[in-house]
Each structure stands twice: as structure tokens, then as C-alpha cells.
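Hey, sorry to bother you again with one of my protein questions. I've been staring at a protein lately and its backbone has me curious. I owe you a coffee for this, so here goes:
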Amino acid sequence: MWLQLINVLLVSLATFLLTFHFVLLLFSFAFRKKKFGPTGQQVEKSLACVITAYKDLSPALPLIQSILDNGYKNFRIYCVADRCEQLNVTPKDERLSVLYPEKGLNSKVKSMLYAVEHFKGDHDAVIIFDPDNLVKPGYLECMNRYLHRFGAVQGERIAKNLDSNISGLDALGELYHNYLERYVPFLLGSSSTIAGSGMAIETRAFRSFLASEEVKEKIDGVILGEDKMLQSHLVGNGIRIAYNKEAKIYDEKLVDRTQVANQRSRWVMAYIKNLKDAFRIFGKGLARFNWNQVFFGITTIYPPLFTVVLFSGLCALYLVVVDWPLAIIVAFGMFLFASVFFLVLILEKAPKSIWLSILSSPLFILGQVKGVLQFRKTKNDFLVTKKSKVVTLEKLKNE
């Protein structure tokens, strides 16, 4: 009796996790033609473009140039060069401020706070960049259009490099998250999750986040998942995070399994630390009948994809032994789960290199498992993912 009940509960949980995104994908087809943001020419808001460089300023130079060449007029770049050797940054431009903190900050949140403290004038919104990013022409204008309607906007990150199977699989994961955790929730009237870079936030809301008690409590320690903290703060305070597919931003993908393990270690710990906020937002949404908060809570409670694969696989193996008909249900759920990846690749017109990288997915998953096993290291170690692709926007256009 009890064993059968446990088996049914395991199957129910595995089936929900495996089919959740498949169901969302089906629902999204009814909303794909929705238009967001004002149409026509809009007044240019003042945008503060904040770049958080750490130990090496050189990867940020192509990003700086791509922002300066974006065609938008009303902006200023604040590049925080934390523990970076001073470089003769070119081009010299009055819209660029390169800030060298006297003492090492060793924190992305501290770097963002340092930039805000050194703003020259009032800005309507802040856009956060990682130094390895590049922005496509028209990016700032696309973000400006959405900022006239929404308090926060996430741009669409795309792969800057697809030169290995690891980078291809990392890009596949980005496509999946872009579609199922950003684009679809936004289509359905909720909020996009934040990708960690390429997002714009109204300055008042961003200052509120930096001044929050949660940030103050953690500012002198190892802060993991500042993007999750930020998105929880925004949605928890009634802001809907938009997703702008037209605002394209290049992001460097991982190139080896060590990077995968380090990055996933941070992600797992950040997910665990964020669960309390995710449940709090979900509960607040239920109490207030707020769809944005309810659905966003569900989206952020949903576990990392590789943990879903591991959990479901172990459930299927266990059920094959004790109750094989139930194992068939889980196996069918795994088939639907896998099919979502292929559907997203088709819908997003993924390049051939990403399709081919799927053959290496078992090794990629092993790297993520390794990351889970070492996640305790993140309590005292940032496990920084080193970036090495110093690529200009012009070079990407010619490839």
C-alpha cells in the first residue's frame, strides 16, 4: 500500500517536471503574434550602460565599441575595471567612463553599486553587461522602446562562439531558457527571468535593489545568483520583466568541461538560495490574485534541467524493477521532454553546429553532475568562469 503510494507520487512528480515545458510550448503558439511596447519613434531615455570587468579589461573593449557604434544618442558607459591593470582604452569618447576602484571589490554586485555611485547625471534606466558581451546594431533603441512600457526588460542573448561541442551545448541551453523561461512566460502575461546580462532596469528600481536588506546582508560575502536576487526583488515589488527578442546581445559560451562544472556549481547554489524567494513570490501572488507573481514563482521554482533529467532517469530505472507500467509513463514523459529541445531548435532556427553538438550531451551532463558535487565550494569561492574570446562585432559579421 505505502510502496504503491510512493511510486505514484514519484511518477506524478517526474511527469509534471518532464511535461511542464511541453505544455507551455503548446499554449505559447496561441500568443506568438502578440506585439509589445509602443510602436513608432520614441523619446530616447537616458541609459546608463554598466560593464562589470574583473581582473582583465581587454575583453570589454569590443563591447564598448559596439555600444558606441549602436546608433543611439542618449547614453553613457560606466565600465568598472575591478582589479584590472590600467589600459590605454580607445576610443577616447566623452560618453565613456572607465572606473578603477582603489580597493578590489571582488563582487559583481559591488561593481554595479560602484558604478551607480559614480553616475554623471541622472539616468532613466540601467543596462547591465558582462565584459564578454557584444550588442547588435539597434539594441539600445529596442530596449528604449520597451522601457516606455515596462520597468525592466531582458534582451535576447545569443552565442558569440560555437567553436566546440561544449559551446554548442551551452548555446542550446541558452536557446531553451530564452524560449521557455523568458519568451513564453512573457507571452503568457508573466515575467521573463533575467539572464545575468543584457537586461535593462529603471534606475529607481535598480537603486531600490542595491539598497535592499538582502543585498546589505550579503554585500561583504560571496554573492551568488545576483540575477536571481534582482529578478525576485523586481517581481516581488510588482514589476513585470519584459522579454525583447529584437534586442540581440552576443554572449560568450563555455568551451571546456571545467568551466561547465564551475558555472553549474554556482547555478545550483544560487537556485537553492533563491527557492525561499521563489516560494514567497508564489505565495504573495496567490494571496493577491497576481498572475505575474504566481506564474513567475512557478517558473523559478522549476529545478535546473539536468537535475530533472537525473531525477527522471533514476525514477525510470527504479520503476522498471518495482512497477514497470509506471516506468512506461515516465519514459513517455522523457520523450516529450527531449522533444521540446528539438522543437525549440526548429522554432529558433538554430545553426547546424548546435544540432551536431547534441551528440556530446552525455559528457556535458556529466560536467554538470560534477558541478553539483562541488557546489559547496561556492560558499567561499566565486568559481569565476574565465573568458577568452576577445572578438569584435565586425569579425562576427564576417564569419
User: Anything to note?
Assistant: The chain has two domains: 2-29+305-379, 47-267. DSSP finds 15 helices and eight strands in the chain. The mean pLDDT is 87.
